[in-house]
Design a protein that fits this description.
This protein is an alpha/beta fold. Helix content is 43%, strand content 20%. The longest helix has 16 residues, at 177-192. Bound molecules: guanosine-5'-monophosphate.
Length: 212
Amino acid sequence: MDASNFQQRGILVALSSPSGAGKTTLTRRLLEHSPNFMLSVSVTTRSPRPGEGEGRDYYFKSRETFEKMKEADDFLEWAKVFGNYYGTLQQPVMAALEEGRDVLFDIDWQGTQQLTQKMGEDMISIFILPPSMGELEQRLYRRSQDEESTILDRMSKAVGEISHWAEYDYVLVNEDLDKTLHKILAIIQAEKLKKSRQLGLETFVKGLMEFV
Ligand code: 5GP
């Protein structure tokens, strides 16, 4: 038996970046690669972009419904981002943790701060940086799902988002998607091998020491 056979405590991973740094693609690839991961689908008051699906990318709600959900304590965290409200649902995250699953959050720095405070050592945070601001702008235009004025707005807000880089456990510059994905997988693998996350390790070691 090696350590990887121990039952492991679920891990919560917050992935943040300015829009256009590749976070959505990385999230998708990570989920394809790691079936034990569940994506936390947030609630938002912003309108769906072309191609986005209800319950897959977000739960799209009115401001009024969002307020009601907030009052009902439905959110683990919530924040106002670019003039819209976004919130992480409490119930699915707790259910996933109980099942021993891992949860991935695509949330901003405000949400990461709140989750880090609430979820303590179950939580790790990763910040993705673009290789340059020029590259970030190009990616936003290539994606071109937003109005030009929104792109300019997102560029200026990117600087604000980037200013929170030092609050994260890990910071990666996304020059190459495959390489960045492998780095994220390596971080998760190492985090899972921390002794506090390997349930049953203590009993196993005690058993080894009974040899003499
Ligand atoms: P977008 O509108 O481009 O999908 O997301 C805008 C920003 O809101 C992104 O940085 C995204 O990570 C963040 N975001 C999405 N869902 C949540 C959430 O539930 N909570 C918080 N705090 N931020 C979120």
